[in-house]
Known about the structure:
Oligomer: single chain
Mean pLDDT: 85
Number of strands: 7
Helix content: 40-55%
Structural class: alpha/beta
Largest sheet: 5 strands, mixed
Radius of gyration: 25 Å
Low-confidence stretches: none
Order of helices and strands: EEHHEHEHHEHHEEHHHHHHHHH
Number of domains: 2
Distance between the termini: 63 Å
Amino acid sequence: MEVLNKIFDKRIKALNILLEMTIKEYNDISQEIIRKNEFQRRRVKSSSTVYSLLKSDLLQGCVIPPIVLALSKFKTDSIEEEENEEIIKQILANKENLVILDGLQRTYTIRDLVNELDESDDKDSKEKLLKYKLRIEAYIGIDKLGILYRMLTLNTGQTPMSIRHQIEILYSDYLVEDLGEIKFITEADDNRPTKFGEYKFKDIVEGFNSYLERDYLTIDRFDILDNIKSLEKLSKENQDKDLFLAYVNTYHCLSKLFVDAAKDWEFVDDQGNRLTGQPFGKTVEKIFSKSQVMTGFGSAIGKLIDFELIDSIDEVLVEAKKIDLSNLDSSLGNLTLKLDNVRTLAKKIGNDQRMFFHFLFRELFDRKGDAYLDFNASIEEAYKSYERKTQ
């Protein structure tokens, strides 16, 4: 492995290096990347002819476009001054922390070809292949927002990768980190949240995506300019903190505030209101474990920041402690009935519920609004806004 060139990227404040390495070296590194990062195991189904052609080209020593990697963990802040040997040493020591920004399908094709040659016992072809050189571009010392920015700009002309998928890749390290009483559950776990503090990772990612996009809908968007504009708006917020962790902690602490205040509340239709179906959530824990609430919360807080009605997501926790939760049992019953009404009116139930919660959290934390920090009043105002929007 050899460093050919180094340029500091002032836009994302990371060192961009051009590496040359053999296919053998990259095949070894990529094994760690894919093994440690489950979200990079997904493959795009495409014409087998395309990949067969690439395999044939590789066997002939074709120089393919550079594969782009990113490494956020680096031992020093003075990365521009590091010697080439030290940079290579750090890359090899942190193989499991590398992320493929561009070239995932090329990586799979290289790995497939090496495995096929192993099985065929064609030692001569394999030895030649492993000695051929690849160009690798790597961003060293890059933060998560910088990785997301580069992912967006690198993948515009290829099979589009949704923002949600990119966020899953970026924040998958939190699946193994100790976050106290917060625990993420993946689809691979084949489990559902069973106690407070457990969240589906997919739902949390959707909530954070709604915060980034300021949009409660979970539709994947591929408009590169819109996404970059969203990142530009976030650049002020991203100073010296991890926005994903800030979103998760804020949402969890807000949930805990309601759970503690509600004690053992459970919806019971003792007044003969006759819901049209099952309640949205029988307990506060069930309500706050749903993605509709997470996305509504995320988009609402994002909008309030854009409108300069709150300064940052950190302010939500301070304000949340002032919420009027008197007569909370009655308010939660009212919330359940309003959500049942939404069900009867909705064309797309999930989207309409997200819209309702978006309005609810905007009313709750809008310091210029009449329902500011009044939970029951926010429910009423949110339902009026929902009716105006849909009728």
